[in-house]
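User: My advisor, Dr. K., asked me to get a structural model of this assembly before our group meeting. I'm new to this, so sorry if the format is off. These are the inputs:
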Amino acid sequence: MALPKVYAGQRCSLSRTLEIVGERWTLLILRDAFFGVRRFGDFVAHLGVPRAVLTERLEALRDADVLAEVRGTHGYREYVLTDKGLGLWPVVRDLLSWGDEHYSPQGARRVFQHVEDSGLLMPDGLCGVCRALVDPSELAVLPGPGYDEAGDDVVSQALLGAHRLLEPVRGR
Ligand SMILES: [Zn+2]
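Assistant: The format is fine. Below is the predicted structure of the whole assembly, which you can bring to the meeting.
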């Protein structure tokens, strides 16, 4: 039997947060949204997430006002991060960094670079050059020394080089 979604007596903000982002796939969907993935089919191709699960997660994130559904070019339904969703960037960044530290012996799989001064983001989340806390819109993602992904989907291809966060992986 599935666990209840809302745990009686747990009023902590962490438990409220986990109701939104604590499910398997959800943080991966959000990570990809920061990478500029917007279309249903592109999430499927890049993550390998089952379509029914993705439908459910996207609806939940939309209902929570973390993602907004918009009409993209050529009439495609697209999902973009809201301001509320953008506020999850430090969480995604720190979990990636923690995973690299403990589970990626070859080094970070992806690195983030402050576009303005080419400084790499350090494990503390600050730019290694200017020491600023950089907004995700001012960052690019690049393959790092531990990069081992070789997918031929449009997302993997777009992320082979430097790709500015939040910019659509598909050209406009
Ligand atoms: Zn910088």
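One thing worth pointing out at the meeting: The longest strand covers residues 67-71.

User: Perfect, thanks a lot.
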